[in-house]
Structure formats: structure tokens, C-alpha cells
Amino acid sequence: VQQRVIDSPAPAAANMGKWVAGPALPLPRSEMAWATAWEGRLHLVGGYGQQRVSNTYHHVFVAAENRWTTAAPVPKAGNHVGVVADAGLLYAIGGHSNQNSTPYADCFVYEMREDKWRRIAPLPKARGSISVVAHGGRIHALGGAIGDDFRTKRSVDWHTVYDPKADKWETRARLPVGRDHMGVVVIGDAIHVLGGRIHSASHNVRFHDVYRIGRDSWAKRAPMPTARSGHGAVLYRGQIFVMGGEEFMSRSRGADGQMRLHGKVFGQNEAWDPKTDRWVHHAPMPTPRHGLGAAVVGDAIHVVGGGPVVGGGVQSAVHEAFTLG
Questions:
Q1: pTM, entire model
Q2: How far is 194 from 168, CA to CA, in rounded Å?
Q3: For residue 130, what are the CA distances in angstroms to 22, 143, 178, 247, 292?
Q4: Mean pLDDT of all residues belonging to the chain
Q5: CB of 131 within 8 A of CB of 157?
Q6: What ranges make up the beta strands (E) of 46-144?
Q7: Per-residue DSSP letters for 254-319?
Q8: Could you give the CA distance from residue 320 to residue 21 in angstroms, rounded to a whole number?
């Protein structure tokens, strides 16, 4: 509880909105990276859970029935897997085999109607904690982290695009600054990359970079009010909403000999309006978390799972949904 932060420097929105409780996840999870939704269903892939950091989980929230179900497991166990849904397909791009380290290049696609996965062309280079979006039938994989342990881990500025028809990857203009654990949202012909960390959660950023697809170039927009990483980012009612995340500050060893992490777990719920290039804050998350899954299903932002304390030691099954009413 001491780590929770909900105060935002952004002005309050005219409509603060509200949070409601949803059905809990089938089991506590975190660090699956992100969530994605398609036709009223939210998908969560991989992540930490049941005392393991690499899992083949694939849970699906069916909004019309207000319940969770289990779908075909992803073929490779991992965490921090980049996911996105497009045209009835769910893509799982890269990930980590160990705790936020040891990335792999394996990529898979899930055919929703058949409940089956198949392997597709791997990433040109292994990486995890990637931000992934779909646009124009292609899949953009941005940033991410490499390294086999916390000493060698570093963020990358790589930007590659997958063409499903050709089953191959192409290179695009690199991120202005390499980072991972970012939020990413598509508006029209632009990809918005929000926040994230440079090499570690002790170096979070407020950056709001926009990739202009037709020009293969980057531009700047108003930075996030709160620097954070491991947060959710979605497009809801024409605005970008960002919620949750963490910041690492220090570590110490307790009297029991156990190492403890100190930092902040964010509950701020901030929104950016593309018409004004300004941020406001809405009702904060009832349960601040990081490493969560966030996606829009129907007229609500569903935020599920995640860690309620800094680091990957604790998972949750919490499911809360935000709506402007």
C-alpha cells in the first residue's frame, strides 16, 4: 500500500468517469505485457503466475457473458509477449524466457475461429517487452529489451513491420529513443508511443513520440504527465488513456534476509486529446498495478491482472473496468 501513487499533475477532467469491478482472472498473473481485444473478447497471453515466470497461458474474457474462459495455449512459454489482434487473428511477437530477460525471436499467430496457433516468421533479432500494433494489415513491433540478465539488459530502438501475406519482416525508421515497457496506440495513420523505460524501471520517461506511417518519420506530442513503464494504453472515445505502471527506486535486505524492492506503483488514469494536444486526469485505478493487461471491450477499458507492488514477485487476479458513462 505504501508504494501506491494516484495523484496526477494533470488537471482534472470535466467527466472523471468511474471504475467497476469485473470477474477475477482464473488465476493471479502479471507481466504478460499487454492485452488485446477483438469482437468483444479480450485476450491475455503468457506472463508470470503459479511461481513460474514463463507460461503458455491464454485467457479470454467474453464480454457478452461477463466471464473468463481458457483458449489454446501459446506454443512457447514466455513473459512480456507483444500481442495484437487484427482481422480475426491474434499475434504473439517475441518475449522473454526468464524473468524479464533472455529474449527470443519466436512469433506465432492464433486463428480465433479455429482456436489454433501456428508459427510465423521470427523477428529479425530476439527481443521482449515489445510494443505491438496493427495498421493496414501489417504488424508494427516497436522498441523492446535484450540481454540475458539484469546486468546486460538494455533497451533497443528497433522498429520492424511484419507482412502477413509475404510472411516476412521489414525495417522502418527507428524510435527516437530506445526503450521498452511502453504503451502504444494507433490513431488514423499515426502510431503513438507513450512512456516506457530506458534499460530499467529506475529510468522511466514521459516521452510521447508519434510515428507517421506514410512518411516513415517521427514527431513529438505533449509528453505524459506521469513518467511510467509497464502501464496500459488504449484508444477510448477518441482519446488515449494511460493507466497503471511502476517506477523502481531502490532495494534493501530486510531483517529476515530477504531482498525488498522500493518504488512506486501507479494508479493514475490520464488521457490525451488529439484535438488539443493536452492531458487531463480521470478517476484513478482502485487497485494500482503494473505489468497489467488493458484493452477496450464495448464501452469500457478493462484492466486485468498485474503486480500490486514493484517488481515481479506478486501477481493479482484483479479485474476492473473504467467507463465515462
A1: 0.96
A2: 27
A3: 27, 6, 11, 18, 14
A4: 96
A5: no
A6: 58-62, 67-70, 82-86, 89-98, 101-111, 116-120, 131-135, 138-142
A7: -TTS-EEEEEEEE--EEEEETTTTEEEEEPPPSS--BS-EEEEETTEEEEE--BSSSSSS--B--E
A8: 5
- Confidence at residue 1, expressed as pLDDT on a 0 to 100 scale: 60
The pLDDT of residue 158 is above 70: yes
Give me the sign of the Cα torsion angle 54, 156, 204, 208.
negative
Q: What b-and-e string marks burial along 255-291, b requiring 16 or more CB atoms within 10 Å of the CB? A: eeeeeebebbbbbbbbbbebeeeebbbbbbbebbbbb
List C-alpha distances in Å: 46 to 36, 43, 142, 186, 282: 13, 10, 19, 23, 30
Closest CA to 142 of 100, 112, 108, 186: 186
- Model pLDDT, residue 207: 98
Angle at 270 between CA 309 and CA 59, to 5 degrees: 55
In this structure, what C-alpha cell is assigned to residue 250? 531502490
Identify the CA nearest to 222 among candidates 4, 15, 11: 11
Please, what's the largest Cα pairwise distance for the chain? Answer: 58
C-alpha cell at 285: 485505478
Please report the pLDDT score of residue 253 as a whole number. Answer: 80
For residues 299 and 276, what is the distance between their CA atoms, to the nearest angstrom?
23
Residues in the chain: 325
Q: Convert the pLDDT of each residue in 290-322 to its tens digit.
A: 999 999 999 999 999 999 999 999 999 999 999
